[in-house]
Each structure stands twice: as structure tokens, then as C-alpha cells.
Structure prediction request, 413 residues.
Amino acid sequence: MGELSFCLVSTFYPPHSFGGDAVHVHRLASGLARRGHRVRVVHSPAAFRMLSGDVPEAAGFVDEPGVEVVAATESPWKVTATYLIGGPVGYRARLAKLLDGFDVVHFHNPSLVGAAAGLRLGDGLKLYTTHEHWLLCPTHVLFRYGREVCTTPTCWRCTLRHRRPPQLWRSTSLLDAGVASLDLILSPSRFTAHLHRERFGGVPVETLPLPGPSETHLASLPELPPEAPASFFLYAGRLEPIKGVDRLPAVAARLGDAPIVVVGSGSLEPTLKAAAARIPNLHVLGPRPYRTVLALCRAARAVVVPSAGYETFGGVAVEAMATGTPVAVRDLGPLPELVDEGGGWTFGSDDELGELLAALWDDPSLAVSAGEVAREVYERRWTEERFFDRYFEVIAAAAHRRGDRELARRAGG
Prediction:
């Protein structure tokens, strides 16, 4: 395989980031650089500052040597215009220059850096990873009115209910034209791939699960926060209704002395802390650095993923399984795919979750044996090496379809 050049385009990138998609872009950039490839990351610190409120910058991320990180724009008004117009207003020429000259241009959540029109920029092979449902939904989440899975789109009313200005460009051909310029859409789950294949039938869609944390990360985890109980169940993620975290106080109240630890930040944090003041076995620790979250995953008896809306993958479950901890995931969207080979359980209701956690608390050996299987499944499916083997396979195949035999050869195909 020869050296390739990659431009990764993402609205968020550590430390100016909230979570999952940015973590993956950082892992991808680092892994490519370690393999001797040239990497540029184009992102939007201004977008993070506009949206973050009191959320601190992500901590614990260090870029590998050879990863160049560039801001597409530092202007808040240009970010706002990108959202409203659907393209890079006031910085199109700069963005085009930043994206030109690479073998591969890989888009990751470009909603506020380039947006739909930006997908047409760049002269390399163009990939898009569906970390969110942005191509399908103006709110990114397919969670109608902020309270239920979207089965019948009512986009204008729903956007307003989410307190966002409507995007008039979504009623034009701008998005379809941008997607048509892509060579390949990558989706981290079969479920998400199916949704995008139905909507964009003219563009190839491949399933490529995201990798878990590197062994270097797992080998040097910090001590647990002193507030953490000796044994506990863990929720880690955004504290928003779509994540189903608002259901955990009622589950905790039925568990007696079995602690549930909640880590993260979001609009529900005050509500959850108020509930924790009434429920002794509910512990809300707030946001913690990424490596501390991994340490909590490793120490937990099980990690709970109670999402009320469609995830695109379920990264925290994979992170837990990487540490040898089993997971309990809601039977919704792509989450059951994560445990279809073992390493955890699905639940269909909050009552079922409570019964499952009670059983795991009463018999710790159930969690220990499931955790051993979780680590085995992780090694088969989600290690960094397995991801990159598949990543270069799909690049080579896409290059062949494009007629670029030289790129296909250099990608190993």
C-alpha cells in the first residue's frame, strides 16, 4: 500500500466537540497518520463555541504527529449562514482550496462546515460517514417533536419545535446534488445503511462499523472518580431525552441499593441531579474526560444504553465491550446489532431493564461471563486493525468504480 492523502471534514473535532462523531474522526485521523498517510482535518471551532453553552471543551485528546488541523472559518455569522443557506457562505473559496489536492475527501457531519453545497467541493474520491441522520433530517436525529421516533416526517413543525430556524434549502435540489457528487456513503450499522439506501438509491452505501478505543487508551486509564461507588451500573452520554436517560431515575428507584452512575452533560442534567437528591442509589457525576469514562466503563457491572430514538451505531456500547464490560441496550434501531453475537442483552421496556439489572446485581457472575464474551466480540468486530482493513477495502472498490486504478492500487486493491 502506498502513502495516501486524506482530508477529513467535520463540524466538530476535539477539543471543540461534544462526543461520538468527533471521537471517531480523531481516531481515524490518528490511525491514518500512524500508518504513514498524510491527514488534514477541517473543522469549525466557531460552531462549537456557538452551540456549547456551558459544556467544556473535550479533554484528553492529543493529535498524532502528521495530523494537520485547520479551521474552515472562525466567524459565527458564516456558520449561521451555512446552516440557513446550505453552503459555505463567505468562505467557499477557502474551503475549496483546503479540500483540493487530496486522494480522499471524507465528510463527517459537515452540517456547519460546508453543508450540502460543500459536498461538491474537493477533487479526490469522496466519502461520507453517517454519524448522524443529517442527510435525512434537519434536526439530525429523527426524533419528532423531541419526544418520539420519526415515522412520518413533519419537518417544518418539528424543526420549529426543536427551536431551530427552518432550512429552506432542504426544499430544493441542493442536498440531492451534493449527495450525488459522493462516491460512497458509509454507515456504521446495517439499520442506518438501510435508511440511507432507501433515500439515496443512486449512491453506493456500505456498512462499516466504527472502531473502538485503541489498546493504548485502554492500557493507561486513570483512577475512578472518588464519587463513584465500589460497584455500579453506568450510563455515559449526552443527557437529552432522545438518549432515554430521563427514564433511569424510575429504574434506579426500583433497584433498591444497586447504584446507577450517570456521566455526561446536557439539558437534563439539572433534572437528573434533582432526582439523585431523592434517590440514594442514583449518582449523577456530570461530564468527565474521555479516558475517565473508559475507566468507569471498565469498572461498571454493565453499561446501559436506553436510547429512545434511533442511534446510528452505539459507540459507548462498543467502548464498554472493549473494556470487557457487557451492555444492556434498548431493542431499537441499530442497537440490537451490537449484541447479536453476545456480550450483552436487549430490553424492550423500562420494566424489562429494571428486571435485568436486578438479576445482574443479585448474581454478579452473569455480568462477569457476559463481559468475557463482550471482549471476544469486540476483538472480532471493532478493533482498529479490523476497521482499517475494511476502510481501505471500500476505498479501493470505490476507486475501481470511479475508474481510478492508480488510487485503487495504492489503497491495496
In short: The chain has 18 helices and 15 strands. Residues 215-381 form a domain with the Rossmann fold fold (CATH 3.40.50.2000). The two ends are 9 Å apart (CA to CA). Residues 398 and 404 are 9 Å apart (CA to CA).
